[in-house]
Amino acid sequence: MAEEEPKVENVIIVGSGPAAHTAAIYTARAELKPLLFEGLLAGGVAAGGQLTTTTDVENFPGFPEGVSGMEITERFRAQSVNMGTRILTETISTVDFGSFPYTVTSENGTVAQAKALVIASGATAKRMDIPGAGDNGFWQRGVSACAVCDGAAPFFRGKPLTVIGGGDSAMEEATFLTKYGSKVYIVVRRDVLRASKTMQQRARANPKIEFLYSHAVTEALGSGKMLEQLKIKDLKTEEERIIDCNGLFFAIGHLPNTQFVSHAVDTDDQGYIITKPDSTATNVRGVFACGDCQDKKWRQAITAAGSGCMSALEVEHYLQELEDDQPGTHSSFTMHHNL
């Protein structure tokens, strides 16, 4: 018996964060019956993406008392389902945009086809393997990879904090943290910074910031449930000492979760998907990208949600154009990737 062809979906959404679910909510309300692949530990984090690694979210509208990262992602998902989105907890491993309709295949072997695709697979913050700073240590209990997300938490206020990194993100996050912490150390492995001159000058001019050049954090310490101290090492003298610190923030970059699609759409040298100006459209017509897999500047839940809305509206417009096309033109239509 011949293998049955998969049903052709109007739109498939890949992702599980605010961008993916906003796109799902909008396309579901437009009666496009979206199919969403939320991933199974995609990018090394649970469904919901980077927000699930955040303790309290206080800057997303509609939650005046704040909300935990896990709870808000669960609410995103529940709203998608309530609107009619179908969700598969599987990670997409390959895509084929060479023929129409487009085909995606999950690691579980599920094959699905769609007229349109929204890539909202996010990006994973890079972390360092420091004793005491991992999942079994003080991660989310004083250790974070997003100062903007977590820095205003009550347990950081008036306390010494530390940022690891030497680029623009590290300077920006350290400057942000000075609003809340009593002091902010910037630990840099080298004796120079990679940050732009403007960002360096701004950080150096801040009296609350102290640079620890040619240093490394070697251990996160605490006697209770929260981070209390850091062991740091002078890489030139090999001397180690302990400093008081109640917050450790990694600012060493992000890795966009785009490996599965990088061969099929244009990406930059860091792997972020390139979209057209004022649009979420990629170089492949009918394929859109939103959220942190496309945005390496803002990386906020609210901006991701906004771009998810943009993708959904563009999908609606694209599918209407597709419907208006004359029958039999799909194969040539998809080959003009740069339209």
Automatic annotation (TrEMBL):
EC top class named in words: oxidoreductase
GO biological process: removal of superoxide radicals
Keywords: Disulfide bond, FAD, Flavoprotein, NADP, Oxidoreductase, Redox-active center
Native organism: Rhodosorus marinus
NCBIfam families reported in the protein's UniProt record: TRX_reduct (TIGR01292)
Bound cofactor: record note: Binds 1 FAD per subunit.
Quaternary organization: Homodimer.
Enzyme Commission number(s) of this protein: 1.8.1.9
Family per record: Belongs to the class-II pyridine nucleotide-disulfide oxidoreductase family.
Cofactor(s) listed: FAD
GO molecular function, one term: thioredoxin-disulfide reductase (NADPH) activity
Domain of life: Eukaryota
Catalytic activity: [thioredoxin]-dithiol + NADP(+) = [thioredoxin]-disulfide + NADPH + H(+)
Domain FAD/NAD(P)-binding: 10-308
Gene Ontology cellular component annotations, sorted alphabetically: cytoplasm
Lineage, opening ranks: Eukaryota, Rhodophyta, Stylonematophyceae, Stylonematales, Stylonemataceae
Protein name from the UniProt record: Thioredoxin reductase
